[in-house]
Amino acid sequence: MIVVFDRVALIGLGLIAGSMAHAMRAQGLAREIVGTAKSAETRAIARELFCDRVTETAAEAVQGADLVVLAVPVGAMGAIAAEIAPHLKPGAVVTDVGSVKGAVVDAVGPHIPAGVHFIPGHPMAGTEYSGPRSGFATLFQNRWWLLTPPAGTDPAALARLRALLEAMGAKVDTMDVAHHDLVVAVVSHAPHLIAYTMVGVADHMRRVSQAEIIQYSAAGFRDFTRIAASDPVMWRDVFLTNKDAVLDILGRFTEELFVLQRAIRMGDGDHLHAYFTRTRAIRRGIIEAGQDTAAPDFGRGVDPAKAAAGE
Ligand code: NAP
The CATH number of 179-305 is which of 2.40.240.50, 1.10.3660.10, 1.10.8.60, 3.10.560.10? Predict the structure, then answer.
């Protein structure tokens, strides 16, 4: 047990902050975890489950904190940064866990006073659950945590944050902000939008009853519904703030879709076979890189209710 930060302040107490708190507690990585959230209900649950202390405001929460983690929807970060700025301890590290980095850097960066180290971050881990009861200590185990430190970031502050994230089980990488936003548009944001669309299409198919869709949803559709059950506020903010990269990827997606559509119409089996052979190789590469397992039901075991029930 090595204490990496004496006092950690978590702003927002949902899936990501809760999982961080559970992981920090399990490893003894912080002496005190202080938290705040919008509602009194969330604060009470967090106090019971994973916070040593909760405060009503973010300004109070960050006082004396060595590490401040902004774990609210991306669209809420700028206002919180403005609120906490005058109360930050000199030498503190401020990070965030937002799924988009450019918009967070623009909204938060200007508020951070000199002498405080702002190191934006993004854990590439999550589930479709949200709220203070959804977190668990192993969420970040073997998952990437991307950091986008600005030029001139204090190496000691970066090393300390990296040490904390690695102790929580994450693999840490650094990259620049624009590159981050493009990469996540491909691997996360566009796939979510496609899942939302597919579930929306099924919903609009009046000829097929909802009962049948649910009854026969064992195949690919079930995975789409799991992704499309993700938090609406979080994902609204992701698309509004990573607009350019998402629109770029969706443009490419639409072009590919038309090519496949044409191959189906023309009965071009060779094209379809070659295409699906290439995509299958990508799946193998993901398994070889340790980002998934070959088990067909991977990812469904993270239901916290089921995990708590020992299923
Ligand atoms: P979540 O479970 O919905 O929790 C969000 C928390 O933020 C809640 O505690 C909420 O309080 C609080 N909050 C919202 N607005 C606030 C405000 N103005 N002031 C204070 N607290 C506020 O969300 P999450 O999944 O942990 O996501 C948090 C961040 O992590 C987002 O930026 C998201 O992009 C990023 N992220 C999420 C995932 C994922 O898969 N979920 C993965 C990687 C990164 P109440 O409960 O009182 O409303």
Answer: 1.10.3660.10
The two tokens of residue 230 are 């993700």
Q: Which CATH architecture has domain 5-175?
A: 3-Layer(aba) Sandwich (3.40)
pTM (2 d.p.) = 0.91
Q: Tokens standing for 168? A: 């929580």
Cβ neighbours, 10 Å, residue 278: 9
Token digits for 226?
A: 């799991």
Cα 262 to middle of ligand 1, angstroms: 42
Query: Which atom from ligand 1 is nearest to the alpha carbon of 39?
Result: 47
What is the pLDDT tens value at each position of the chain, 311 positions in all? 699 999 999 999 999 999 999 999 999 999 999 999 999 999 999 999 999 999 999 999 999 999 999 999 999 999 999 999 999 999 999 999 999 999 999 999 999 999 999 999 999 999 989 999 999 999 999 999 999 999 999 999 999 999 999 999 999 999 999 999 999 999 999 999 999 998 888 877 766 666 777 777 766 788 888 899 999 999 999 999 999 999 999 999 999 999 999 999 999 999 999 999 999 998 888 888 888 888 765 444 444 444 433 33
Collapsing DSSP states into helix, strand and coil, what is residue 153? coil
Residue bearing the CA closest to ligand 1, atom 16 = 38
Burial bucket for residue 288 (CB in 10 Å: 0-12, 13-18, 19+): exposed
Tokens for 50?
């994973």
CB of 71 closer than 6 A to ligand 1? yes
| Cβ of 168 less than 6 Å from ligand 1 | no
**Distance between CA atoms of 60 and 63, rounded to whole angstroms?**
6
Ligand 1: does its nearest atom lie under 6 Å from the Cβ of 99?
yes
**Pocket lining: 236 vs ligand 1, CB cutoff 6 Å:** no
**Cα-to-centroid distance, 272 and ligand 1 (Å):** 41
Q: Where are the domains of the chain?
A: 5-175, 179-305
Confirm or reject: Cβ of 42 under 6 Å from ligand 1: yes
